[in-house]
Amino acid sequence: MGKCIAILFLALAAYGNFSNDTTTTEQQNVLMIMVDDEHYYSEGKESEIYGRCGVMDGEITSTVEQTEIPNKNNQSNFGKGYGYQYIDKNIEVNMDGKWIVFEKIE
Known about the structure:
Elements: H1 2-15, E1 17-18, E2 25-26, E3 31-35, E4 38-42, E5 58-59, E6 62-63, E7 75-76, E8 83-87, E9 90-95, E10 98-104
Parallel strand pairs: 6-7
Antiparallel strand pairs: 1-2, 3-4, 3-7, 4-10, 5-8, 8-9, 9-10
C-alpha cells in the first residue's frame, strides 16, 4: 500500500505544483526508472562516488513521456541509452558523464 501511495505522490509531483494563482504552473523534474520490477526516482542529485568500475549493470532501453510513470523494466521517463550501476540500495545512472542517484521507492 505504501508503495502505491509513493508512486501516486511522484506522479502528481511530475505534473507540477499548482499555486493559488491558477494562471501559473510550477513544474517539478522528477526523474523515474523501473528496474527489476521496482521504481526508483531522482531529483537530480549527483553521486559522490568516484573511481567506479566501467562495467554497467544494465541500460535504460525504452522511455515514456516525462509526465508518465515507467511501467516496464529498464524504462525511464527521461530517455534511453543510459547505463546504470547498483550502488547499495540505490541505482546510479550515467547521464551525460554525470552519475545521478536514483532512490528506491519503498
